[in-house]
Amino acid sequence: MTNLDDLEALAEIDPHDARRVLAEFPAQCRRASTLRAAPPPGIGTPRVVVVAGMGGSAAGGDLLAACAADAVDVPVLVHRGYGLPALAGPDALVIACSYSGDTAEVLSAFDAAVTRRVPVVALTAGGALAQRAAAAGRPRVTLPGGLMPRMALGYLLLPAVALLEGCGVTVATAAEVDEAVAAVESLAPELVPARPSADNEAKRLALSIGDRLPVIYGGPTTGAAAYRWKTDVEENAKRFALAGTLPEMNHNEIEAWQGPAAKGLHAVLLRDAAEPPEIAQRFHILRDMIGPSAGGLSEARGRGAGRLARLLTLAYLGQWTSYYLAVLRGRDPWSVPLLDEFKRRVRRPSP
Ligand code: PA5
């Protein structure tokens, strides 16, 4: 296993410099918080918001929906797939998110919105989505390019927060956005490769997980971050990971924590400073019940006062943890060859 404090070894395993992109995430968030749709959508408060995205480009929508749940009376749904759900009508707002702008499902959602006369805003760095938005005269938030979509989380989340604010849907106030960016800024130096393992939470988490299967559990709010951790582990470290949410997993998945197989699992509980007492109680019981049979168990928390800050910092911690899990096993955290090949085959015309 790679020594995570050996910076030369990291440079060899990570030739695309994903570590620099992650270290620059605070600057990305700062810039992202200034990005706006052009032209402005000029619509009133929508009845429902549908964020259409896949993979890394859906992650911003998940965090947005998690922040929105208790804060606004407009439902925010994340749509992963072709077309649009039937509830997306002319009084809805669709945010078509694709970092590359070339994801088939999101293009299909954008086209469905145009056909059904649903207000739609494209959130993209370019590709066919940018072209279609221009051709259809629909607003676009232009994202800076050159990143892997999953490492562009700031760009895929914060402009959407501003977009909704402009439509009267305040998922997070400007002060809460500022606080979230400041929280990421203060966390970053604690997680970068130059910070030794003894004093680096992401390295310590990766070392504790080691070769075990990570099973990430969140509560009602941090469940979105748990799913994001899982997908980051899969894409960055090229390893399986599981994610679940309390209280639902108490009604099914808990049963799987029996027997010798549990020794091969490492649970990571994503806690939240504002979790209700009944959820805190469930986490305590879960610890008690699965702790003895699990191969390992860790807890992690986001930073900051606001929900946006806590979720963004928790997701950022997951990004670094999955990064270190990748380099531990000598896997390039940047490239995703199977994902790319799958997209190539989908694009190929059928014989
Ligand atoms: O993180 C990734 O690279 C993927 O999960 C992509 O986000 C996903 O395949 C969709 O592509 P895009 O984000 O460009 O729409």
Specify the structural class: alpha/beta
Instruction: Report the β-strand fraction as a percent range.
Output: 5-15%
Say how many strands there are: 9
Total discrete domains: 2
Short description:
The longest helix has 22 residues, at 307-328. The chain is built from 13 helices and nine strands.
Q: Could you describe the 3D structure shown?
A:
- The protein is α/β, with parallel strands linked by helices.
- The chain folds into 2 domains: 7-15 and 182-328, Rossmann fold; 18-180, 3-Layer(aba) Sandwich (Rossmann fold), CATH 3.40.50.
- Helix content is 45%, strand content 13%.
- It is built from 13 helices and 9 strands.
- The strands form 2 sheets. A 5-stranded parallel sheet has the order 2-1-3-4-5, sandwiched between helices.
- Helix 3 (25-32) packs antiparallel against helix 8 and helix 5 packs parallel to helix 6 (127-136).
- 5-phosphoarabinonic acid is lined by residues 54-57, 98-100, 103, 106, 148-150, 235, 336, 339.
